[in-house]
Amino acid sequence: MTDLNKRSLLHTMALSALAATALVACGKKEEAAPAASAPAAAPAAAAKTEPLKIAFAYVGPVGDGGWTFAHDNGRKAIEKEFGDKIVTSFVEKVPESADAERVFRDMVSQGNQLIFGTTFGYMEPMMKVAADHKDVKFEHATGYKTADNLRTYDSRTYEGAYMAGVIAGKMTKTNTLGVVGSIPIPEVIRNINSFTLGAQSVNPNIKTRVVWVGEWFNPPKETEAATSLINGGADVLMQNTDSSAVLQTAEKMGKRAFGWDSDMTTYGPKAHLGSAIINWAPYYTKAVRDALEGKWQGNQGNWWGVKEGAIDMVSVAADVPEETRKRIDEIKAGLKDGSFVIWKGPIVGQDGKEVLAKDQVADDKFLGGVNFYVRGVEGRVPGGDKK
């Protein structure tokens, strides 16, 4: 049908209607203006966006009562916050080995667009997979390497360790504290030192003993280490491991201990002095919102603590003195408004050398590289030449 024919037909209303019918029959897309409103429902249906698929890799079981349990609580929090805008999944007990790379690649193949790896040992596998999948966003907990599509996040667990130390320093009868350590990386060494500094702030006679188990989650080894510390004179224990075994051991042996990463009160109610917990929900909420709103950016590191609602000391035992409870509240308030700093000189290393001069405040670079014990911690950092 030519343009000339169309112009002729449009001169009358009857021929105009006939032309419209003919156009439809010929399969053309031109329509009379009033008819355009009929298929309006189709574009609206097509505009519906698919939910953001999010996956978590956990180093331990979700029921560990500590580290992984805390991360999974964060996952549940974002499900509640964002509803049908997201879909989450997780894989637990992913080893810090080459197998982790397989898990991350599988998560990508399943269409996940935001992937969280929740332990330090996932760093290299995540870097490799992120390099191969630039369209996927990766978040690595406790690491330090970043990329355009990979950023890091961490919690200032040393703040919780310090508060635990303040309580321990008041509650110990032997002046000997014990710590069950996992992997001798700066994060863990920093926590041991902070625990000791907190205790020494209220009791200068404190000494701290450490037993390393070489793993994040191994209840039998954690139990053995706790038993060894108690037999060696420690009457208050802290851990940087993921299970509740240390607290349970203290309960059985009539000593005191702390929960770590999550509130562990129920695992040893008589032994429990308080729990230094991590709340991952604030950060996970921010990360997901960034991704949904197109604001997510790589090549960043995020380190949150009491100030951001990521760290707290909870369920403090009833027999902890009121003055100590008030001190904990003061520390929390000071950490929130910046008026209190844990790593502020003078601080002396185990070898007697000053590591922070009087009134000098450690920056995050210093804190991220702590590989020495402070004065009062016995033994040597695994590695031989580290002090």
Short characterization:
With 387 residues, this protein is an alpha/beta fold.
Please provide a written account of the structure.
With 387 residues, the protein is α/β, with parallel strands linked by helices. The chain has 2 domains: 52-156 and 281-308, Rossmann fold, CATH 3.40.50; 158-278 and 311-368, Rossmann fold, CATH 3.40.50.2300. The chain contains 13 helices and 14 strands. The strands form 3 sheets. A 6-stranded parallel sheet has the order 2-1-3-4-5-11, with helices on both faces. A 6-stranded mixed sheet has the order 7-6-8-9-10-12, sandwiched between helices. Helix 10 (245-252) links the parallel strand 8 and strand 9 (256-261). The protein is globular.
CATH superfamily (homologous) name of the largest domain: Response regulator
For the largest beta-sheet, the strand count, sense and barrel status come to: 6 strands, parallel
Topology-level CATH name of the largest domain: Rossmann fold
Query: Strand tally, please?
Result: 14
* CATH class categorisation of the largest domain: Alpha Beta
Mean pLDDT: 90
Across the major sheet, the strand order is 2-1-3-4-5-11
The low-confidence runs, each spanning 5 or more residues with pLDDT under 50, are 1-45
- What's the structural domain tally? 2
Q: What string, H for helix and E for strand, traces the elements in order?
A: HHHEHEHEHEEHEHEHEHEEHEEHEEH
Instruction: Choose one word for the global shape.
Output: globular
Relative strand content: 15-25%
- What would you say the CATH architecture of the largest domain is? 3-Layer(aba) Sandwich
Rg calculated over all Cα atoms: 29 Å
* CA(first)-CA(last) distance: 91 Å
